[in-house]
Design brief:
The complex is a heterodimer. By secondary structure, chain A is mainly beta. Chain A is about 0% helix and about 60% strand. By secondary structure, chain B is mainly beta. Chain B has strands at about 5, 10-15, 20-25, 30-35, 45-50, 55, 65-70, 75-80, 90-95, 105-110, 110-115. The radius of gyration of chain B is 14 Å and the shape is globular. Helices cover about 0% and strands about 45% of the residues of chain B. Chain B has no helices and 11 strands. The chains are: A mainly beta, B mainly beta. The interface of A and B includes residues 48, 92, 98 and 104 of A.
Chain lengths: ~110, ~120
């Protein structure tokens, strides 16, 4: 079963706009990760945030984590057409190193 | 540095036929994962190896699926016999688990897309 659930399922924006995706999960976690997948390709790691962190930045990416609400958000600022992809959150449970992925958010950035 | 290599990229077979997928992880990575990804869905774990030991195969349909990781490096995933519902992308990922700040980052291959007719 999938622990993480991304929201929205699909998002369409204009180039230059910001894109925000949310992830909710059910059980305690050690960390939460975000991945990107271009069509027909494998997943690429974007950013990892640990359970004791609240916010993390990497280039145009900003990730927040609220463990009390069991939720995380991924913000992509100044989006580009090349950001068009599916974005997945993955959580690592406290019992080992199993990563559970959500169904993903399909982002379309229109030029 | 070479990434995770998977082959074949595409495979089309008739139902009831066998099929095998191969994965070469990043050199030095001790943990290897096989995931199944259906269209429009996230990856679902099939099996996880720590070196050559399968530490989690609870989601692997053992009546038809088998996997091995000889010498703790390359891995193969086999389906015999394949069913129509097995059509999906099979992703291999690897990581190096050492408890440091990068613990947990997965490196994925491009996947093997299986079509069962």
């Amino acid at each position: 079963s999938q622990q993480g659930e991304e929201d929205p399922q699909a998002l369409s924006i204009q180039e230059g706009e910001n894109a925000t995706m949310n992830c909710s999960y059910k059980t305690s976690i050690n960390n939460l990760q975000w991945y990107r997948q271009n069509s027909g390709r494998g997943l690429v790691h974007l950013i990892l945030i640990r359970s004791n962190e609240r916010e993390k930045h990497s280039g145009r990416l900003r990730v927040t984590l609220d463990t009390s609400k069991k939720s995380s958000s991924l913000l992509i600022t100044a989006s580009r057409a090349a950001d068009t992809a599916s974005y997945f959150c993955a959580t690592e449970d406290n019992y080992g190193q199993n990563f559970v992925f959500g169904p993903g958010t399909r982002l379309s950035v229109l030029p | 540095e070479a990434g995770v290599v998977q082959s074949p990229r595409y495979k089309i077979i008739e139902k009831k036929q066998p099929v095998a997928f191969w994965c070469n992880p990043i050199s030095g990575h001790n943990t290897l994962y096989w995931y199944l990804q259906n269209l429009g869905q996230g990856p679902e774990l099939l099996i996880r190896y720590e070196n050559e030991e399968a530490v989690d195969d609870s989601q692997l349909p053992k009546d038809r699926f088998s996997a091995e990781r000889l010498k703790g490096v390359d891995s193969t995933l086999k389906i015999q016999p394949a069913e129509l519902g097995d059509s999906a992308v099979y992703l291999c990922a690897s990581s190096f688990s050492w408890g440091g700040p990068n613990t947990g980052e997965l490196f994925f291959g491009e996947g093997s897309r299986l079509t069962v007719l």
